[in-house]
Design brief:
The complex is a heterodimer of chains A (599) and B (386). Chain A is built from 13 helices and 34 strands. Chain A is an alpha+beta fold and 599 residues long. In chain A, helix 5 links the parallel strand 5 and strand 6. Chain B is globular and about 55 Å long. Chain B contains 15 helices and 17 strands. In chain B, helix 1 runs parallel beside helix 2, helix 2 runs parallel beside helix 4 and helix 12 packs antiparallel against helix 13. In chain B, a hairpin with a 2-residue loop joins strand 12 and strand 13. Classes of the chains: A alpha+beta (599), B alpha/beta (386). Chains A and B meet through helix 12 of A and helix 9, helix 10, helix 12 and helix 15 of B.
Chain lengths: 599, 386
Amino acid sequence: MTDLDLIRNFSIVAHIDHGKSTLADRLIQLTGTVAERDMQAQLLDSMDIERERGITIKANTVRIEYPAKDGKTYVLNLIDTPGHVDFAYEVSRSMQAVEGSLLVVDASQGVEAQTLANVYQAIDADHEIVPVLNKVDLPAAEPERVAEQIEDVIGIDASDAVLISAKTGIGIPEVLEAIVTRLPAPKGDRDAPLKAMLVDSYYDAYLGVVVIIRVIDGVIRKGDRIKMMKTGGRYPVDRLGVFRPKMQDIKELGPGEIGFLTASIKQVRDTRVGDTITHEKGGTDTALPGFKPAQPVVFCGLFPVDSAEFEDLRDAIEKLALNDASFSFEMETSAALGFGFRCGFLGLLHLEVIRDRIEREYDIELITTAPSVVYHVHMKDGTVQELHNPADMPDLTYVDHIEEPRIKATILVPDDYLGDVLKLCQDRRGIQLDLTYAGSRAMVVYDLPLNEVVFDFYDRLKSVTKGYASFDYQMEGYRQDHLVKMSVLVNEEPVDALSMMVHRDRAEQRGRAMCEKLKELIPRHMFKIPIQAAIGGRVIARETLSAMRKDVTAKCYGGDATRKRKLLDKQKAGKKKMRQFGKVEIPQSAFINALKMDS
Amino acid sequence: MESDDWQQGGFGLYLHWPYCLAKCPYCDFNSHVASQVDQSRWKTAYLSEVRRYGDLTQGRTLDTVFFGGGTPSLMDPELVHAVLEEIRATWPQSNTFEVTLEANPTSVEAGRFAGFRDAGVNRISMGIQALNDDDLKRLGRMHSAKEGREAFDIARKLFARVSFDLIYARQHQTPQDWAEELKQALSMAIDHLSLYQLTIEEGTAFGDRYAIGRLPGLPTDDHAADMYDITQEITEAAGMPAYEISNHARDMAESRHNLIYWRYGDYIGIGPGAHGRLTLNGTRYATETPLTPTTWLTQVETQGLGESVRDPISPMDQATEYLMMSLRLSEGSSLVRFNDLSGVELPRDRRERLQDMGFLTENANKIRATKAGRPILNSLLRELLS
């Protein structure tokens, strides 16, 4: 139990690679929270994928004790928030749990789009923000210019920004001092009924579900019976503690404190980020504001390459879902791909993370179908259907109109590439909302349909800007548009896994591109194969894959028999990597590659 | 009966001479360049292997011998003589006993032709490859077009049966160029031609150059297919249709030795890297020998055994090999033999489908690849066998 005045809670806002994790490591190290021998790079990112990609998916907290220059010892609680738009809601909850933020900006790179999105979250949460310019030891560092940019673009005072090098340790004591002197202490009433925010939760093989909480009012103790106000779950608190960054038990947590509890909760699914935790008896009646249930926005099919692994895939998905309430799934059957699952994700990164984990941790090779957004199909009878899979598109005669999700995308790009970026956004049916300059970089804001972004927008953006653009977005609601389902027919057979929703005006172009792509991706057969794109019964694009004309070994004598037979066996085995559609064999890789558009 | 299935293909002996003066950039055969070769050591080893196989196959009649390589025309005629003498002493020979030797058409080698004939060689297969000097240089050949023709004339006078190889679908070769060249070849007094489409093989100089994009001007698949079609038309018109995918002959002038491979007979393989198919006590074996010349030589010298592998071939693998080899022939494959070898029928629905598509014909229990089917034979085989 710590005096409120001696607590400072903060998060770190930064773009990938701008040094958030390194700074966190330094703070932990300098305050002696971790013994030198236990130091490893990026202490807080615990998953392999987090470390590899340099991203944070789950919120982490660490409690640091810092003896300040004023002679008092402060408790600093750092929440390391997820940094990606897919987890925008989780970020917003983490932000609500602290009173201030360090805004870390690379002193040579400047502000990036992702920094913006997160710093606005911090501003929304009424944070006191301390700008920190990192990597000032690099020759390319321009702290003054970047400070100016922070003031221009974000609109906060950066005149007393702290200059640091997280790598070498320059300026770290000043950061600690700034946290104590410039960030406000939390407020709260120790005698009020318990009110704590569920910041995040994760599954631990030994402890079960571990819940990260921030106490707002009241006191929580080991053995208390608590209830979750949204889910209604009631549990006895088994264990209460703080992260330093290893778990350390504690008797109680009071107002302003951040820690964890375990309470025999079996699944992460039973917890909801943003939920209010109170005592079962004598608890508060008013929940914390801002709670939102998780809502998948991107859907795709996951199928095992080897259909014999379907049950293994089911197992893997169910296990992952236990630890991730935001991930949804249901069984799906595809004529093309057999049995699999239609899964819903918070965004593309979330999709990739889950897919990688299934492939890596469960060793199942997957076919991923094209990601689709959720369309609202307004029927003539006045009902609204949510469409997660183009294959489920209802008969058009019953459809009144279709709405699609839109996003507000913010892109920061060096001047030289601006033209390419504008063209890309325009090609993807974007509507320009804003275009401003900050130094030699332009900031463009576009209203874009999410379905134009989900597949390869980010890849294209990186490629046209040689990696110099940064991109972030937020959901902007639904809007009606002229959307149609485009089906693809290979040798007159519809291939369900390739059908997609497209804007009517873009259908011919997409259809042509798709047919051309498939013509490259499908190997020649013994017969010619028409490849068509169609809307309803009307063909809008067509290519013909001509028949194979030459496939014979020129020399085959006594010494070749063994080798050629083995080659034939290998080719027969290779056929298993193909999916059969009527008479045509399509390589599995074609399903995902066919959707990568070149423009 | 499985035990004597090989008799439907015949019985031959292949002998590998691994050395060449230089390695051709397209060649993926087991060939080596050595500054000095002790031909007497090789003689002893070859003779020892001939005797060993003689013991294993007593009572058989030998149909053919083939000296392949490498460049067997670099062998001393005396060495060829000694080997053939041993062979004749070991097996009785059939009435149509054929002894082929592969030769390069340089003047030096042509000078040995008479010696080869006296040793008992009765058929020469010449690696002429092209009839113009530019292409010969590109193919890394050491003879000129003129030398090639002269060597051919010498061979023609000495041997009743002469064949030569040409490589087509070469760099920068148009279908018209090839048609001209082929017609020239046919105007020579020839009764057997092997016409190979240039294949870029991994592990060759061409393969390496191709991989880094330094082998320009190769025809597209469609162009190569056109050239294949032209080849068929021209040779048919000249009375030398293909009796095998890449081999053309006048009636009765086919390579008897190679027919043993394609008809899935038995053949002994002697020399480094030589493969064999040999039925012993009712079991058909695949035999192999060490690839490296000196390894093979030393092994024969020290252990009296050139083989490094002798694996029984499963019934299905035998049937697969039979179909794979025999469907290359215009005479086709026997469904009865396939059935006898594998114990199962070659799937009827697959056969019918390929017939409907015009790639296969079936008659009196034999299947044949049609004119349309032959250029895509590998696909046909995959379809039939998977």
